Records
---
Amino acid sequence: MLAASAHIVIAGAGQAGGRAAEALRARGFQGGITMLGEEAHPPYERPQLSKDMLGTADKPVTFIKQARDWSSVLDVRLETGAPVADCDADRRTVTTADGRVFGFDRLLIATGTRPRRLDGLEGRGPKVQYLRNVEDALRFRKSIRDKSRIVIVGGGVIGLEAACAAAKHGCRTTVIENEPQLLARALPSLVSDIVADRHRSHGVDFIFGTTVTGATAGGVQLGNGAEIPADLILVGIGVEPVATVAERLGLLATAGIAVDACGRTAVPDVFCAGDAALQWSRCHGRDIRVETWANAQNQAIAVAGNMLGEQKDYVDPPWFWTDQYDLNIQVAGDMCDSDHIVRGEPASGRFSVIAMRGADLVGALSVNAAKDMAMLRRLLAANKRPARTDLESPAFDLRAALK
Ligand SMILES: Cc1cc2nc3c(=O)[nH]c(=O)nc-3n(C[C@H](O)[C@H](O)[C@H](O)COP(=O)(O)OP(=O)(O)OC[C@H]3O[C@@H](n4cnc5c(N)ncnc54)[C@H](O)[C@@H]3O)c2cc1C
């Protein structure tokens, strides 16, 4: 255990930063903890921004803890509106943008990601919005309540959840997706098609295979020459790691901040967790950034333990969910470059898809089949290799494969 005289600094007061601070105290660390966050708010979880907060009721944001409770309950010094602007590995200090210097014995980088920008749209006509923080969600909620005509750039999770909310508010909504299908990185076309049909039945239009190239006075210009009328463009084309702190430490972080299975970076006593971390994924067979709620929580908790001296590898397979109208879709591991076994009847609206690479189970997906997914996640986590013939048999009980 790290000495009670030690001081831990957490750069980034988002979900991973907040969960790590809680875990440090839960594991009995009695030293100082300072959490420095760029946003004006205490840590909160982001899934509510594209779900509950975009409903018809005025739902306020829910924080992991109220600002005062970080100090009074956990003895954590939380500084909001305090982005870390510099970091010195030799002196073991971080400096905030307003010039305050904080010493550390261990540093956790939990600076997350920021939306990838689509430049050249601002100022020509429709408003341009992104969806990453509380302010973005409140702005977008106002726009959909105003029944704006909305063009959403990007048919990924964020774009599609935004489309659900817009459609429920009666907005004329068009999603522009460069790929020939929705959620191309995560879903097989069988499931993408179901999602697209569900959206269409709620009035959402899709244009595939092209992108937005510019804005006009009354809408957007597409690469295929078409023009779509719009009052608002919501851009949801993925995220990129926020690596200011890592770069100050000399870490190359274009694809993410590389960590080992304990969350250690290449700089001694500097760790990283959450969206910004570039970590090994057995399912993918390569290093990836895992941009999910579950990773922001569980990796942060595991890395907090390792900062105190535990040596426990964090190897949970990636997992996320998305809600699209009445469809609850969950994805674990990697669904790309693999053979797929469908269990259940897609037409029934409740089924799962298992991804195999050779004899290896590498991914799973469920549509309104959370119980199957719970079992499949356990199989993936335990690195089980159930026989393909068993998985193909509708009568096979997945629980048997765990034994
Ligand atoms: C709208 C939305 C909906 C989502 N829905 C789902 C979902 O349904 N299911 C799912 O699995 N995942 C979902 N996610 C993803 C999930 O929320 C993220 O994976 C998670 O928030 C990552 O946590 P994090 O702490 O790593 O990063 P963040 O939550 O981004 O926190 C990082 C924090 O660090 C701050 N920061 C950045 N630079 C600095 C600096 N230099 N100094 C100090 N602070 C800094 C940032 O301002 C931010 O507050 C969603 C994300 C969004 C945006």
---
Amino acid sequence: MRPVSFSLYIHIPYCEAKCPYCDFNSYAVKGWPETQYVDALIAEMRARAVQAPWAGARVRTVFFGGGTPSLFDPRSLERVLEEARRLFGIESDAEITAEANPGTVSAQKLRGMRTAGINRISLGAQSFNPATLRFLGRIHSADQTIAAVKQARAAGFAQLNLDLIFAVPGQRLEDAAADIDAAAALGPDHISAYNLTFEEGTAFGAALKAGRMRQLPDETQAAMYAMVRRELARRGYPMYEISNYARPGCEARHNLTYWRGESYLALGAGAHSYAAEGPAGRRWWNLRLPQAYIAAATTNGVAQAGGETLDAGVSASEFTFLNLRLTAGLELRRFEQRFGVSFEQRFGVQQKRLTEGGLLLHEGGRIRLSERGLELADSVFAEFL
Ligand code: SF4
């Protein structure tokens, strides 16, 4: 079934410096081939625009992620949007987000981004504590984040997200609480708060492995997560996804596409796309290195490095644990519409076990995680694999 609309992700892989915890496909560079990269994005978009399921469907959300999209001239981002408008059409009420590093924006750049058609800005604040920012290798100060929020407001951005990281080694509960306070005081409509993870292939991952760094104890991390949920809700930002909080009605529409298991087209170096095809699905990904991506996309239109078809069984598993990330949970009717069997027929055994164990709740035609299920989310998700 062809989607009527879809979400478009654009990856900008360049950064000023590589943060030691970051496992995104991003590269610290002094200069970047901006024009060639945008030419490659446009070539890839043209090639995908004639393919199913994107041909004939409109764009309902766009997300410029990275990397650091705010390194680019706003006119470069505008070129990408113009092409998307020409090839697919962008819905008039589309959510168009760009990530921005507070160390790379200015009043002028933010005005340019707004003029380019971007209507939502996501600032990587991470913390307001100088020691934590230094530890995380961030290139900006808390004052720069505060200034960026003011400049974004002045530029006309009504929709604004702040990213935070907690459970940083050395951080105390009151430090994390102070960050929540500082973020909420700036009045964004959306806050993402991520528990720091130590991923393979990152500087922090290596330091952990070598015993040069230690994670906070599990119970401290759990206490911080509980505090984040409670304090953000108290300030008008109830949790709607495991790491995301918003004023009611301000949930990120682009990310909801991912969590609801719907189709998205992702362009750029290392970008992963997903097409839901009836009960099955298809995923593919691009060459990771920016230069290899530019060369392939410019020559062939596509720069695909690999792909896989997901049968109905795998798709049903993914659909389940993605939807369970949402506080609203999984809508049983949608599961049945997509997979042609009821959730109970497919996952009745797991549902019974997890419900009896107090980890899942079943109410109002939905299945969702309980408070305890939220704390043990990864083990709940593993039950559906
Ligand atoms: S700025 Fe963002 S994308 Fe770039 S290295 Fe840091 S966390 Fe990763």
